[in-house]
Amino acid sequence: xxxxxxxxxxxxxxxxxxxxxxxxxxxxxxxxxxxxxxxxxxxxxxxxxxxxxxxxxxxxxxxxxxxxxxxxxxxxxxxxxxxxxxxxxxxxxxxxxxxxxxxxxxxxxxxxxxxxxxxxxxxxxxxxxxxxxxxxxxxxxxxxxxxxxxxxxxxxxxxxxxxxxxxxxxxxxxxxxxxxxxxxxxxxxxxxxxxxxxxxxxxxxxxxxxxxxxxxxxxxxxxxxxxxxxxxxxxxxxxxxxxxxxxxxxxxxxxxxxxxxxxxxxxxxxxxxxxxxxxxxxxxxxxxxxxxxxxxxxxxxxxxxxxxxxxxxxxxxxxxxxxxxxxxxxxxxxxxxxxxxxxxxxxxxxxxxxxxxxxxxxxxxxxxxxxxxxxxxxxxxxxxxxxxxxxxxxxxxxxxxxxxxxxxxxxxxxxxxxxxxxxxxxxxxxxxxxxxxxxxxxxxxxxxxxxxxxxxxxxxxxxxxxxxxxxxxxxxxxxxxxxxxxxxxxxxxxxxxxxxxxxxxxxxxxxxxxxxxxxxxxxxxxxxxxxxxxxxxxxxxxxxxxxxxxxxxxxxxxxxxxxxxxxxxxxxxxxxxxxxxxxxxxxxxxxxxxx
Length: 595
Description:
This protein is mainly β. It is built from 5 helices and 42 strands.
């Protein structure tokens, strides 16, 4: 049996321990620290000696592979105990066990480069765009750092991703090509390692993302330089004491983003053992507390506290670094890095017997408190539910009728996830304006069972049929009335009539004239006028004499007061401009002609 060692290092320097189990069965411990810690570790070392002696005594009846497995298990147990010991002294301790080419485990302190053993799955070389009769044809060339790289592209971040096949070229250069039918906006191409995808509950955001310009049908070519790499401390796993928070730091050295914006953000992909729920892309102040964000142009640093004192989390912590490169074709790049997170009383990321459905925090909740997915009217959408567990027996999908009855969904099929711990169902939903209840919501129930542990969980999904939003131009107007005591005081009400499902969130602006200056952009009142219809109002009180005496004018070339809202379907802010009636204010023509 070859020598092996386990390195356990405290980030604050309070504790450094190296355990070495040699081929003759001896166990040696070397450590620094205070006397109490030394006594504890001496006791641990003596127990390891006893374990090793017992394993040696069994060597006559077992082969080498079996013994290696037993020893590996013991090292893992020791690793967990050292985690707890170091945490008790105010630090987060992590142990790294690396696999070598012989299938055995090698341990020990590595050089500075291997201290953060992360690499991007690809090295980008170039991108090109060529117009065709079917739209722009994009080709991305790269070299691989991972054996099995998967590529997707999407026409907009919220569009369904399409898997593309990569093609081998000369000198280790690979390429992937795809055609975008639309000739506007942006397209995204993502590349990630299939092995990492399977380790991270089917999360693909640890790969490389490239945003390409698709605004015109022209030929374009651009070379892409070296990609930055995200380094994380701890580099592979954060093992924490249940009930305590822990800190993680990520940084990107030697940033070269041509002066364009760059940022690091974090998200969690895994399970909340306290609530029994699983999440993809969970973030926010309830999960992370930002410690610092270094603005040094040569290094981007982000340190966070993960708030595990209130919820026990287990899964994968992702760090995302996005930056603009300002090229004619490639606009933005995002690289990602993840580390495992688990409590110290748990030997694996997924605890035995866990069963829970994934929740997407970006989808939000419906009025019923269920996860809300949206589908535009007259379209057919794919609805999915995913469940995670170490022993998933069955998944069932039912449609919940308005009267509470339930019926089977014949189109529900397996989501084709080739993972033991993650399974899912998918089905088609035809969206109609009058789908199900009067709110346009159709409810589905997903149920999963784990027969070996006697567990069953359910999740409800509300699908909202979205109707295009807009303005009712005839009902959007301005009304004026005099103050009951002074006729020179005008009460002006701006009425913004809108429709759509969901109803748009309206805001108001006074335009460029200081006369119509609102105290806030929010409506004063919103009145529902019918199904999927409402009128938002904003009221302003004006002293006409005051404005006239002080030389205020309404200029014809100025921006009139308006109301507006952001249309998710159009991807833009749309507005309705108000025509101001004659209220006694002086008017002028072009402002520039008057100066």
